[in-house]
Amino acid sequence: MTTLADAARRPERTAARDAGGRGDTFRLSESPSHLLRRAEQYAAEIFLKAGMSDGVTLRQTVLLAAIAEAEGASQSDLVRATGVDRSTLAEMMARMERKGLITRSAAEDDGRAKSVSLTRQGRDRLEGALPAIRQVDAALLSSLPRNKRSSFRQTLSLLAEAANEAHFTEIEELRKARKAAKTRKSARRTVKRKKKRNRKKSR
Q1: Which of 5, 58, 80, 133 could pair covalently with 47 via S-S, beta carbons 3.0-4.6 A apart?
Q2: At which of 143, 160, 187 does a domain end?
Q3: What is the dihedral of CA 185, 187, 190, 196, to 10 degrees?
Q4: CA–CA–CA angle 76, 130, 56 (5° rounding)
Q5: Is 162 within the bounds of a domain?
Q6: What is the span of the domain harbouring residue 87?
Q7: Which residues share a beta bridge with 73?
Q8: 144-to-14, 27, 64, 155, 159 alpha-carbon distances in Å
């Protein structure tokens, strides 16, 4: 089976053909990004039809499940686990905290980070939503031939791994950029201090 790494090493023309159709003609119906988006919409529609109350969304349920799997996880951990961007996740957790579904406190190993846990009410909300999640999973898999389901899961896992790798790379590049900026700022301050001392000596 071709992996994402194999695809990344293909010539650009081959990758373009695989991604969007034949030659230079872009076909929306053959675009992986569009098809993934449609599949996501399909999953969300199935979840809504499951009749969840209190306006619980599929994304909120995913976040509750991620917290339940890793009690005390930081917000950064949850960004990696769910794929929800940092600002959106922060807004979601603020709403959940107001509703009494989660609690946030300073992490033991890093006072600047927030440790997130479910409340009893949050656990009850998750338990109530799990049947709908299972219904979504079952409906998605039942849409595929039996002999395609295993490869479908594997493909999704590969894409998730690629997303995680991209996230880690972005975080590392941001860390290096901040460190470099801090070093430059420190160097400028040192130069300014030296110039100031030299001016005083010359007086």
Answers
A1: 58
A2: 143
A3: -80
A4: 70
A5: yes
A6: 55-143
A7: 116
A8: 27, 22, 28, 14, 18
Q: Indicate if 126 and 192 belong to the same structural domain.
A: no
Q: Encoding tokens for residue 32?
A: 């992986």
Q: How confident is the model at residue 178 (pLDDT cuts 50, 70, 90)?
A: confident
**Phi, psi angles (nearest 5°) of residue 125:** -65, -40
Where are any strands of DSSP class E within the chain? 73-74, 102-106, 114-118
Instruction: Report the 3 state secondary structure along 38-58.
Output: HHHHHHHHHHHHCCCCCCCCH
Q: How many CB atoms lie within 10 A of CB 94?
A: 12
Apex 20 CA angle, 18 and 25, nearest 5: 120
pTM of the entire structure? 0.64
Q: What's the pLDDT tens digit per position in 93-151?
A: 999 999 999 999 876 665 567 789 999 999 999 998 888 889 999 999 999 999 999 99
Give the C-alpha separation, 72 to 117, whole Å. Answer: 5
Looking only at the bridges linking them, the beta strands covering 102-106 and 114-118 are antiparallel
> Quick one: tokens of 9?
């090493």
What token pair was written down for 131?
Answer: 């049947």
